[in-house]
Amino acid sequence: PEPEPRPPAEPPPGRWGWGRSPAARVESGGGGQKTFRTLLAVPEAATGREERGGEERFAVTGSLPSADTASPVERGIFWSRELEEQVPPGFAAEEAAAWLSAARAARVSSLERGGCGRSSNRLARLSDGSRACVRYGINPEQIQGEALSYHLAGVLGMQERLPPMALALVEARGRQWEPVREELRGSHWAEGAVVSLTRWVDNLTAVVAPAPWGAEAGAARWLQPLSVGELGGLSASQLVELVQWSDLILFDYLTANFDRLVSNLFSLQWDPRVMRRATSNLLRAPDGGLVFMDNEAGLVHGYRLLAMWDPYNEPLLRSVCVFREGTARRVAELHRRRSAAAELRRRYRAREPLWARLGFLSERQAELLQARVDFVHRHIAHCRAQ
What we know:
The chain is built from 13 helices and 14 strands. It is of the alpha+beta class. It has two domains: 73-89 and 203-385, no CATH class; 93-199. The strands form five sheets. A five-stranded antiparallel β-sheet has the order 5-6-7-9-8, with helices on both faces. The protein has a three-stranded antiparallel β-sheet with strand order 10-13-14. Helix 6 (236-255) runs antiparallel to helix 9, helix 6 (236-255) runs antiparallel to helix 13 and helix 10 (325-337) packs across helix 13 (363-385). The longest helix is centred in the C-terminal third of the chain and has 23 residues, at 363-385. Residues 1-68 and 212-224 have low confidence and may be disordered.
């Protein structure tokens, strides 16, 4: 089993309270204040390169908006419709439904090691010609978290950012797995275990966070809230990426996912350059769209570890004060109706035939999901008031 991450050492006192202003100052070596525009710039922007794990790659920046370009933000806190229309479409609902239907009916032709995360996972070639990552969790709650996170993204209107995902039952003598019976013996997967099948996507590349959350003397520096005043100098491609990041940070807060940007922030205490390297479980498609990968830590595993990771997830949420209007509208509706868990359960049961094998959230987890929806709604209202 993979060891649990160590808890953060002595989080900065008083940093996480609700009373902290969204216009909180950013700590820096000289005690000065840095704008979001300054922090957003890639350290190697002058040369057009970004660092990734010790390597360099050329950044695609797009063209700078002209002086008469329409504002990227409407009504103070929402991305403009024109900007949202430039966001790559991701995995269209019809395309995802077709792949899921085909994958559930297909037989597994082969299982290969590598390319899909931990050593217990496999890359499957399916009889319909497609490929899928088969994830075998350390425990069932990780597969449950993957499935529930996928369907919560659907409730929130951002499922196109996640690759299509279905559950499958491991049965060595079953029709789906019969061609790879020998490979299953070598995998040490338990008969009857539930695994996830996630569509394989070619040509994905690593993503560096759009702003470095640096570290000095062990204390994290947090961004000012992303607001309209600091967006004027950004390129079109940077703005399009920020639209997607605003959804990602909100999504990871709701699911309490610590295995993406939060894990990088945690590593700042021993690696001050970590935010200039690839973000965990986040990749970029060739068209520039972000792909939210591997959400096993969400909702179930993440909810068990809230005390450890919310000191990172909360300020990340507070660092964003511009949102997709559709996302904010869905959050407001879930808040008004107090229906987050009910909507998730309805969608999960309707779209995942094997949902009962893993079950749903406990009553306590359902309450936590609603409480986090309510918190996000209050934060959006707070941004509007500013």
